[in-house]
Design goal:
The protein is α/β, with parallel strands linked by helices and 433 residues long.
């Protein structure tokens, strides 16, 4: 989506049914993201002509054939997962998938996406992308008379890594002598994220007609990087009291928000810099032209405040909020996790949530609540989450050792179902290392 945050544009845009326009400047600027228009004047002009404001919403999740093959066999395969992943067909598939994600993630940091569709259309990498699963989206347009969005022509698709193997990078060290090897990929830290395809690095395509996008399984054209039009959206705010009576309508701009449960320090976790999640999220999202206006780091272990803030970059000062206290899932508790999210995130925002507290009894109630929420209901937290990074601590070898043999939390088969069901709710859910 176009990012209009050129440090002079505004968090509210007011459009009238007549020729009059009012742009109101505020002291604290936020990104203005307008789908279906490449610049503010184009959107303003379309509003004057009576053309509707349109946004994109999640439609459904489609497992790839390769993912489906794992869903069919994981209940048995989990009992000897390292051997199964090392079978020639899966070893080759793992090389293709990880090589593709590494290629997409290795884009030099100088390449950014401050606006939507900022990368050109290119041919689909069919031989590798056929392994990937897909998130599907529909286009909707705003009816100001009813203050609702209605289905409109337009279909979109974005790739996401499949659920396969251990739900971790199969080239990391966990399988020891059975671990796979790939030249040029030697991360053996136990923290490899080479299997993850975040938004911004996930190829996508869309059309503005009722026909399927020009990129179905054999489609020639995709955008390899950048933010798609379903990244975030404007929020209609009708009947503003400060505006003249009539057909006035305001649009509130979205924010980029990150919540990290189990953050440790920004630049290091224990003695392992490779496990520093804050730095990874900063480079993956914030530094790519989509800065976080809220970066909330929650850590139960006592941190040194000066050490914590010494590690954050200058452009996070003010946005970075360290909560060195535990959150809960207790009703009525001001530190209730779900209520915190509801307070700081709106449906139109782009929200990245990381959940890795290394404690299944704390993590499980959060994920259970997300999965049990009814879709489309006001106050639903699952409907606020765009991207989720979650380390699901369950019982299976070889992870029993590092995870301390967790009890009563299920197995790898259950993890597959959890991640698939989260994706079916429209959340780009990834297995965090």
């Amino acid at each position: 989506m176009p990012n209009m945050s050129k440090k002079g544009l505004v968090p509210y845009l007011f459009a009238f049914s007549g020729a009059a326009l009012l742009l109101v400047a505020f002291s604290r600027m936020r990104s203005l993201v307008l789908p279906d228009a490449s610049d503010p004047l184009a959107f303003i002009t379309s509003s004057i002509r009576g053309e509707p404001y349109c946004k994109w919403v999640f439609s459904h999740y489609e497992s790839s054939e390769y993912e489906e093959s794992w869903l069919d066999r994981i209940e048995a395969a989990q009992n000897d997962i390292c051997r199964v992943v090392a079978e020639p067909v899966h070893a080759e598939a793992s090389r293709v998938i990880v090589d593709r994600t590494l290629e997409l993630m290795s884009l030099p940091l100088a390449h950014q996406w401050p606006s939507y569709d900022s990368f050109p259309l290119t041919p689909m990498n069919a031989s590798r992308d056929i392994y990937m699963s897909r998130m599907h989206y529909n286009r909707t347009c705003y009816d100001p008379s009813a203050n609702t969005f209605n289905l409109a022509p337009g279909k979109g698709i974005q790739l996401i890594e499949p659920l396969w193997g251990m739900l971790r990078d199969p080239f990391d060290h966990y399988c020891k002598d059975k671990a796979l090897y790939m030249a040029g990929h030697n991360e053996q830290t136990g923290q490899s994220k080479a299997h993850i395809m975040p938004q911004g690095y996930a190829p996508y395509t869309y059309s503005l007609t009722d026909d399927p996008p020009q990129a179905q399984k054999d489609s020639p054209l995709w955008r390899s990087h950048g933010i798609p039009p379903w990244h975030s959206s404007l929020r209609p705010v009708p009947d503003q009291p400060q505006l003249p009576a009539g057909n006035s309508l305001a649009f509130e701009t979205p924010k980029n928000v990150h919540l990290d449960l189990g953050s440790s320090y920004f630049g290091i976790w224990g003695s392992n810099a490779a496990a520093a999640s804050g730095h990874w999220f900063y480079n993956t999202y914030h530094a790519r032209g989509q800065p976080f206006s809220r970066f909330i780091a929650v850590e139960v272990e006592k941190l040194e405040q000066k050490k914590a803030f010494d590690q954050i970059p200058a452009d996070l000062v003010g946005a970075y909020n360290l909560m060195n206290v535990p959150l809960s899932m207790d009703d009525g508790d001001k530190l209730n996790t779900m209520d915190l999210i509801r307070r700081v995130v709106k449906e139109e925002d782009f929200f990245v949530f990381k959940l890795d507290i290394d404690s299944a009894p704390i993590e499980e109630p959060i994920v259970k609540a997300l999965l049990e929420e009814e879709d489309g209901v006001e106050g639903s937290v699952s409907g606020l989450i765009d991207e989720l990074m979650f380390e699901h601590h369950v019982a299976y070898d070889p992870m029993n050792g590092p995870w301390g043999y967790p009890k009563g939390v299920g197995d790898l088969h259950r993890s597959y179902n959890v991640f698939r069901d989260l994706r079916k709710k429209g959340i780009r859910a990834h297995s965090w290392p």
